[in-house]
Design brief:
Keywords: Disulfide bond, Signal. InterPro entries: IDLSRF-like_peptide, LDL_receptor-like_sf, LDrepeatLR_classA_rpt. It comes from Diploscapter pachys. Disulfide bonds join 51-69. The chain is 50% helix and 7% strand. Strands 1-4 form a two-stranded antiparallel ribbon. The model is unreliable at 1-36 (pLDDT under 50). By secondary structure, the chain is mainly α. It has two domains: 49-84, no CATH class; 88-188, no CATH class. The protein contains nine helices and six strands; from the N terminus they run αββββββαααααααα.
Amino acid sequence: MSGSILHPVIFLSLSCLHFTLSFSIRDVMQVDGKRGETSAIICPTWHPFACPSGECLPIKYLCDGSADCSDSYDENHRMCTAFTRPPVEETAAFLQALLQAHGKDFLVKVFGNKAANNLEGMGGIDKAAVALSQSKTADQFANDIGLKAEDEKRMVMVMEGILNGNNGELSPNEAADFRFFVQKLQETGFF
């Protein structure tokens, strides 16, 4: 019986704290080919971004051209690119939805043969989503994900075609489903 009373008390105590477990993109970001550390830093809600060095920053200080983390992590070019793009989770969900709607090999039309079987040759949906989020350019994406030069050229041609109304291999529905995301990539300098 005392256990049932204890749980609400613990819940109330935790819900009254003004600190939250902070989010850091380093949990999904690759730096020099390695995933970031996953140790949690507790930051106040008004400074939710955790620097790897331990400082806590307000979101408005990220990617503002001035290093606020002692290790300059808040100005990391990959993180700052990801900061301008749709979140990794949304990108992964979007890629998954495209594959469900159009088939497991649909993205071969965009990325080439490495995208067969649900992006298996590209490391899977999550790896592709991280690379799309943090790669500043199509060239960097191709390098990160291991695309051949001809596949990179094809990818850019397909994406430019989607924006220009020349769908190429894509049906009008396929192009329409992909257009919003391609616009976001173009707006942030991917191609």
